[in-house]
Amino acid sequence: MYRSVLAGIVALILAVSVVSAGGSLPGASHTTADISSATLTPDSASSLETNGRVTAVQSQQFDSTTFEVTVSENGDSTWTFRHERQLNTSSDSNETDEYREFAEQFEEEETELYVRFTEQAQALTATGSNQTDRQMEATNFNRSAGINYRPNPMGYVEMSFTWTGFATVDDDGSVTVGDVFDGGLYIGPDQSFVVRPGDGLVFESAQPEGQYLGTSLESASSVTWNGEREFPDGQPRVVLVPEGSDGSDSQVDGNSSLTDLFSSTWLVAGLVVVALGLGGFAWYRFGSGASTDDSPDDGPAPDAASQRLPDGAVDSEADQPPTLPDESLMTDEDRVVKLIRDNGGRMKQVNIVEETGWSKSKVSMLLSDMEEEGTISKLRVGRENIISLDGFEPEATKSPFEE
Question: Quick one: where's region Disordered (predicted)?
Fold first, then answer.
């Protein structure tokens, strides 16, 4: 099953970096442990089996572990596994010298630890390729080990490889990470999972919400999730877009700067949505679509009786769908459907951003979910996404089998 196998292999490759084979770290003790104590998810038990047990380095061998994924515009990614350990500098310890010897051997020789890492990376990409129908390979393997002083000596081991075809790439240039995590991902205590945008990319969205530096997700250089943590199905899910894309250069009359200002935090964005939603509802109730009987009081209007229409009668100004509930009570999906319907059944995505006042990332995520549910359809025209309700799609999006 794709979910258990791929999630298990992901767990295995994350765990293999702490499996001791042919070259232990100085000062580290070893034990024979159940498979579950050496892997990152229970699912990996189906993918790693050595008579039900493996020889594992105890968790205290490393103080911290970071799994870093840098995603490129073409969907490839560089996976880097970095493990760090504070070295003992007491006068009666020679751990620093021993670690230096270990690091030299690790870099000069292809130890079993490194060989196993490359084998599992290749198995991981092969499985991912079979299940996603995307061409995937594990290439450009690198390794290093040494000591950093900051100021105390910190021993590190680092291994990396390039995973080609890791993420999906859409016609608009957006890159999405997440489908390989079908079944979810687990990171243990003292472990971190980091995603970085490659050259020319910026964050559009990240689920679940992670930690980042900067005033907004779009300007962040990385997003980090710290363990212990178990991600739900298909997560972490990250969407990256080309710098300056997704309609960011199509805003007019200062709306771009306003949107950027209010998209810095979800809290502020939520307040803006509420304010604009109430304002939009007031316009809908009392604006162009409402009655404007402000004529001088010089007698009843000729058709004043039409103010009270009998059952079944049709108001000439009411050629609109039935009155919808108060917008403050509507779901985001309902608001988008109403907005598109009010605009003839079809809208540009950038116009939805402008009219709702929501951030580009929120609108993009919401529309993706609605497209999966079949509520709307998308068509890329140039640099614009055209969003349509059922029955209002441009001809290019309709099936050739439709009459």
Answer: 291-329
Tell me: do 359 and 395 sit in the same domain: yes
d(Cα 261, Cα 256) in Å, to the nearest integer?
A: 9
Q: Which two tokens stand for residue 238?
A: 């990250």
In tens, the pLDDT along 49-100 reads: 323 222 223 334 788 999 999 999 999 999 999 999 999 888 777 888 899 9
351 token code pair: 């116009």
Residue with tokens 């880097």: 80
Nearest to 339 by CA among 257, 263, 348: 348
- If asked whether residues 229 and 90 sit together in one domain, one would say yes
Measured CA to CA, the distance from residue 178 to residue 286 in angstroms comes to: 45
Q: What is the pTM of this model?
A: 0.54
Say which residues have a Cβ less than 8 Å from residue 226's Cβ, sequence separation at least 6: 187, 191, 192, 211
Strands (E), 307-381: 346-348, 376-381
> Is residue 307 domain-resident?
no
Select from 222, 184, 187 the least CA-distant residue to 71: 222
3-class state of residue 4 by DSSP: helix
Residue 77's contacts (CB-CB under 8 Å, 6 or more residues apart) are 69, 70, 71, 162, 163, 166, 167, 177
